[in-house]
Amino acid sequence: MKTKSIKYILAAGLVCCGLSTTMTSCNNVLDEQPRSQFDPTYFNTKAGIEGGLTSLYAHLRYFYGNGYYLNSLETGTDEYTYAQSADGNFKDADLSGVGSLTPTSSVAGGAWGTLFANINTCSGVIENGETAGIDPALLAEAYFFRGFDYFILVQTYGGVPLDLGAGELKFNTSSVRTSVRNTVPEVYAAIFSDLEKAVADLPENPRLTGTATKNLARLYLSKAYLTYGWWLENPNNIPTYPECSRDAGQAQSYFQKAFDMAKSAIDNPGPYKLQPTFYDVNVATNDRNSEIMLYADHDEDEKFGNGGVGYGWGS
Prior knowledge:
It is a single chain. This protein has 315 residues and is mostly helical. 51% of the residues lie in helices and 0% in strands. The protein starts with a helix and ends in a 10-residue tail after the last helix.
């Protein structure tokens, strides 16, 4: 018994020594610091602002390149419909009535998460860029994308939050789990303000191939005016969320604004023009042509230009 006790004491001592050594050696490796706020220090530098601007273009592929989001916009139109092996993701979105579109049966969040993250980046670029004295023409790209993203969101989901946790259209650094959805008119007011700012400050010619220009902003602003006018008129009596009143009498003024802005874009094409034939528009070797006004592919390498090899359809 005495021998056994000594063995147990020795074993326990070795275990304690091992734990002590392990804990000492790991002390400088694992230092967990839970945070309730993000650190935006990088945004206070010129390099951080430029990096934020680059990411605004990169985000386009993460929803336009997502097959389920694309399907939610295309299925049931005159472009295509569901096929023999289609599941509910296709049938439920089809306008023929073959399926039933419900919150649980459809993949409708393709734009939600991606765009709100990008909107917050836009706000960070704008706030920090203005403080750092960044060229207004560069900041106008962030104004364009914030208006562009909110325009997609309000068309897809109705009213959406303008306050991501730090105030309306403010850069948020806190991790919050609650939000309040603004009404459609409130969201459109923010869209018009941002796109009008972009029209005023963006250059006529892109600073890089495919970056935002004055005419690109004009055309999206025209489309936003037109869409809001239709929403006000509401000819098909489609409900909206959150519920709010619509003044159909204002619709005509927005249709006129849409016309005037589109006419301005047509009269001032800048570097853009139509290609000679339909073939020229679609042939792969002519991807970057004079009809294309906005690019997401800043690098032709698949790993970088498409968000990773095989990216798309949720992979």
